[in-house]
Automatic annotation (TrEMBL):
This protein's pathway: Cofactor biosynthesis; pyrroloquinoline quinone biosynthesis
Name by which UniProt lists this protein: Pyrroloquinoline-quinone synthase
Protein source organism: Hyphomicrobium album
UniProt keyword terms in alphabetical order: Oxidoreductase, PQQ biosynthesis
Tagged with keyword Protease: no
Reactions catalysed, as given in the entry: 6-(2-amino-2-carboxyethyl)-7,8-dioxo-1,2,3,4,7,8-hexahydroquinoline-2,4-dicarboxylate + 3 O2 = pyrroloquinoline quinone + 2 H2O2 + 2 H2O + H(+)
Gene this protein is translated from: pqqC
Similarity-based family: Belongs to the PqqC family.
Amino acid sequence: MNEIARTIAATGEPMGPAEFELAIRAVGAERYHDKHAFHKLLHGGKLNKGQVQAWALNRYCYQAAVPRKDAALMSRTHDRELRREWIHRIHDHDGLGEEQGGIERWLVLTDALGLDRDYVISMEGALPATRFAVEAYVRFVVEQPLTVAVASSLTELFAPSIHRERIAGMLQSYRFVNEEVMAYFKRRLSQAPRDADFALAYVKRTAATRSEQEACVDAVRFKCNTLWVQLDALQHAYVEGNVPPGAFRPTA
């Protein structure tokens, strides 16, 4: 920490907008799950089909929870403009009209991997740690102050790079992956930056005190940890061979 930062922290003065944004982005540089060993195996073509199935099945739990946490956030605010903007996130995942949405695109991926769709949707075979982590994220958004809840979405600042890496790596490495299967990630290349830009501006505008700003930075850490622990669980179960009772067991 430099001398100016020490002085600000000691006095409790709020960070300036640029410093606040740098503090948020520093969390991603340190903790985003693109650095996880399982992520590197997945994108590097080092997993077999059964391990990729396990990743897609477990990740569905997170995808399915996203519109629930967004609906919970919207229910808490009287800010009409925030609701008008935030509802796009639900449409992006659940779909609207002819647009099927991100959850459907994720199910196209699990279909192509040979997983039964009803089994995926039931989440019956998901790892216990996955489900605990996902529900912890939903509860965080329900229980934390609104600005902090919004801040927890700011891992989207770091998402486009991981999506580009995932698209290129998986298309190159796996015969069972094609352009249609990767449609979810391609769509997120445009959706995530739009959402992140709005959320970042909102947080920078509404986190007025030093303690509120630090709580927002902690929220980004929490969300990074939520994503990280899901990969920890996959690594433990499907790379190290410690699949818990009742969880999906690959046959591919």
